[in-house]
Write a structure and sequence with these properties.
CATH superfamily of the largest domain in chain A: Jelly Rolls
Oligomer: homodimer
Largest interface: A-B, 41 and 41 residues
Shape of chain A: globular
Largest sheet of chain A: 6 strands, antiparallel
CATH class of the largest domain in chain A: Mainly Beta
Number of helices of chain A: 8
Distance between the termini of chain A: 39 Å
Radius of gyration of chain A: 19 Å
Order of helices and strands of chain A: HHEEEEEEHHHEHHEEH
CATH architecture of the largest domain in chain A: Sandwich
Strand content of chain A: 15-25%
Structural class of chain A: alpha+beta
Number of strands of chain A: 9
DNA sequence: CGTACATTTGATTTGAATCAACGTTGGTGG
DNA sequence: CCACCAACGTTGATTCAAATCAAATGTACG
């Protein structure tokens, strides 16, 4: 975690924070937030930077401000499974465990707001509401993880791809239904998220394209042409 | 949830509770526990009883006292995935969501201690420590769920079976290493937990038996003969 | 003791992995 | 500006692990 403590960092005021209403800190009233924000440090990452590693001391709790963070686990022989994607507003890590038990890596340009776990616990003594808020985020993540257990255990490759595209589309809900968006992950990352190989992912993308359910241009911009039919596949 | 509210129930004192040190209520001091315990109702279930259903109002938080509870999700066509096994001391449900988003069913004879979610929130106003404790249990479950994502997404059938047997063995840690224990799940349930079919589960059990890594008698009693080698397969 | 259910085992199929080229994209330096 | 190269992605041929289909056997229980 040297890269977090050692670097230049911004002490953004929460007032300007783009995820103020989404992050776990949103439960705090203005006075408490003022105090809490003083504990935070933001840090930026470029594509593919390691944010923390399995086995290292759990020193920081993070909140994704910008970009995407992939959380993954590894088997001894290098097989990888992405167990979560952290979008803006999502919490990173926890304040319970003594060690991280997975790896976190930035996907594209990413900005994260960090708090020291010890400071959060200290803060909580006078502001216990923060626990309820962290509990909310943790429960949400548990829900997502269990949804993904169903996907990995019981869905076919086609259903997995369709579900994945709908998940991405969910994060562009503000836009019009058929709005194009950038697929943030490489094929290998999609494979590692869905428990597949790159080839299988590629084949099923081609499939959906030939069926005119989706369109892809400029290499990574995607339009969902037939949302309802995609949903029925997922 | 009629079966919880309507039935005869015991008002066990926490002092006699066999999972007092494991449950989320263990964070409370004696005074608070006294008050908290008054909110609880215990209920017993026989094998295969539905405890709660996806889509129903999230009214109760539970704590498993005895037996095992399987938490599962279903696809439209009936495909099932067990997303968690609740052992004694494990928390059941959450206090955040408005609805249950999975099914819970007893496996064998089971006893559960229930608290109304509304009452917990009310209790928390004067005892915020309960949130920290529930957070601990939730974080633990998230860790288990992510471990299982790796298993479902990236492990082979043999590795899945080996991991499953070691998981069961973990829950008999007090016993000697090669102590026989009862496999609490039917083959179909094991399959639904590991994202496999009954036939594949059966074949790999036979495999491990012929390799002398495990032994099974009386239909469902299991001994792990070679713990280390089983571990190397998982 | 018989019926229903659970489990095992065998034969076959199949969806996804693997192996193997080939195409595309984007960055670098001549 | 283009040639080169490395990383990424697609497509095809083949293999393989697990699913499916199909009996047969084992077990629990009224």
């Amino acid at each position: 975690m040297n890269n977090i403590t050692s670097n230049h960092y911004n002490l953004d005021k929460c007032n300007n924070c783009p995820v103020r209403d989404l992050s776990f800190c949103n439960a705090l009233d203005n006075g408490a937030l003022e105090e809490f924000s003083a504990l935070s440090k933001t840090k930026s990452f470029q594509d593919g930077q390691l944010i923390f590693s399995e086995g290292k001391t759990n020193e920081y709790l993070g909140s994704v401000i910008l970009g995407i963070v992939k959380i993954y686990k590894l088997l001894d022989d290098g097989r990888q499974q992405i167990v979560s994607l952290g979008f803006p507003g999502d919490m990173l890590g926890n304040i319970i465990d003594s060690e991280y038990n997975y790896f976190a890596e930035s996907v594209g340009d990413t900005k994260i707001c960090f708090y020291q776990v010890a400071r959060i616990n200290n803060f909580a003594e006078s502001n216990p509401a923060i626990y309820r808020s962290i509990l909310g985020k943790t429960t949400e993540q548990l829900g997502h993880a269990r949804e993904w257990l169903l996907l990995l255990g019981r869905k076919t490759a086609q259903e997995k791809i369709a579900s994945f595209l709908l998940l991405l589309a969910e994060h562009h809900k503000g836009d019009s239904p058929n709005q194009a968006f950038k697929i943030p992950l490489k094929r290998q990352e999609i494979a590692d998220f869905l428990g597949l190989t790159i080839e299988t992912v590629s084949r099923h993308f081609s499939n959906l394209k030939s069926k005119q359910l989706i369109r892809e241009y400029a290499g990574h911009m995607l339009t969902i042409v037939d949302y309802d039919q995609l949903k029925s596949l997922a």
